[in-house]
Write a structure and sequence with these properties.
Helices cover about 0% and strands about 50% of the residues. By secondary structure, it is mainly beta.
Length: about 350
């Protein structure tokens, strides 16, 4: 588990002091202090401090390399944080004077303005689920479920054997597997998404992705997936793919070439939410299982803020063969407005409705 917040706050303030022509350096500083925490919506007074010997022509301020404003003197810049992505943000001041420049940086941590709303659930209907499937990815389209099952058929030393990974097309009402293709037994399959007539499947540690023909499950090609720590959950909003990697980061991927185009870091009002796993995009929000918990978090895809937390702790009362057989599977029927939930090797898939506590 990677805690990027801890790494950021344990680092000293990043300071880069440089004259563009290699002249004698003079000390400048910047406020706020590195590691200061703010709530989304706060206005932050950002100010460059410099000796009287420097008479600036302008001071340009940037957040994560993007310009946010400028001043002619030491007057503080009021930085608005509404709509800004959460997590660590680097603030830089570039001081221009006499044809030369110096720059100084600090970092802040931006947190959600309020705690997530607390939700529970109501079961509408239960459906059969294949207990041989160690569910890693789940989606619903055109009347059928598509499911990615994980597992090493030939596990590396120290890894649990969960059965060979597969890709399946499943009949909802009966749980019958209508179509299936097995993955290389040395590969552990993870999340899936459908983009047009293609089905994309991630892998856990192998740093590759598979692209299948949706109708036939014929493997069309593979791609290098060097984004993030590992390959975990995946979903699609009609424009871009989302992928998580075992941390609190959700990556944006190009839907055609699967290259990284951006990311958000996921936080609630207490801190980062790590171990984000299976993903689903529902009505403009991201829904994510939190690995080895009975919790789903609902995320703002623009900022990373956790908007709701859903407790499903009593959903699956059946005895489990081992603790790893946890909640992991969210699928949404957009036409029928139905949400389906399951877990690894569970006996049932549930249609549920989320209810505010």
């Amino acid at each position: 588990m990677k805690n990027k917040l801890t790494l950021i706050l344990s680092a000293a303030v990043i300071a880069v002091l440089a004259y563009s022509c290699g002249s004698k350096q003079e000390n400048i500083s910047i406020s706020p202090e590195a590691g200061t925490t703010y709530k989304s919506g706060d206005q932050i007074a950002v100010k460059a401090h410099y000796p009287s010997s420097i008479q600036p022509d302008s001071i340009v301020y940037l957040v994560d390399s993007a310009k946010v404003g400028s001043q002619k003197d030491s007057t503080a810049l009021s930085l608005k944080t509404d709509g800004m992505s959460l997590g660590p943000r680097v603030i830089t001041a570039k001081v221009y004077a006499g044809g030369k420049s110096q720059e100084i940086s600090t970092n802040i941590v931006l947190m959600p303005a309020k705690a997530p709303e607390e939700y529970t659930y109501k079961v509408i209907k239960a459906f059969p689920h294949d207990t041989s499937c160690y569910t890693e990815g789940l989606l619903y389209q055109d009347g059928f479920l598509y499911e990615s099952g994980g597992g090493y058929g030939d596990p590396p030393a120290g890894e649990q054997k969960d059965g060979q990974s597969s890709l399946r097309k499943v009949e909802l009402n009966t749980g019958k597997v209508l179509q299936k293709v097995m993955v290389d037994p040395k590969i552990f399959a993870e999340g899936i998404s459908i983009v047009g007539d293609k089905l994309i499947q991630l892998t856990w540690k192998e740093k590759i992705g598979y692209v299948y023909d949706k109708a036939t499950f014929k493997l069309l090609n593979t791609f290098n997936n060097n984004v993030g720590v590992e390959g975990w959950g995946m979903c699609f909003d009609g424009q871009k793919l989302y992928m998580d990697d075992s941390t609190n980061r959700i990556w944006f991927l190009d839907k055609d070439n699967y290259h990284q185009t951006g990311f958000i870091d996921v936080y609630d009002d207490k801190g980062p939410i790590n171990n984000l796993n299976e993903l689903e995009y529902i009505d403009g929000k991201l829904y994510a299982n939190v690995w080895q918990t009975n919790t789903i978090v609902v995320i703002d895809p623009k900022t990373g803020a956790v908007l709701q937390r859903i407790d499903l702790s009593s959903l699956y009362p059946e005895p489990r063969a081992r603790p790893a057989e946890v909640l992991n599977g969210i699928a949404y029927d957009a036409a029928g407005k139905r949400t389906f939930i399951t877990g690894k090797k569970w006996q049932h898939l549930y249609q549920v409705e989320f209810v505010k506590k």
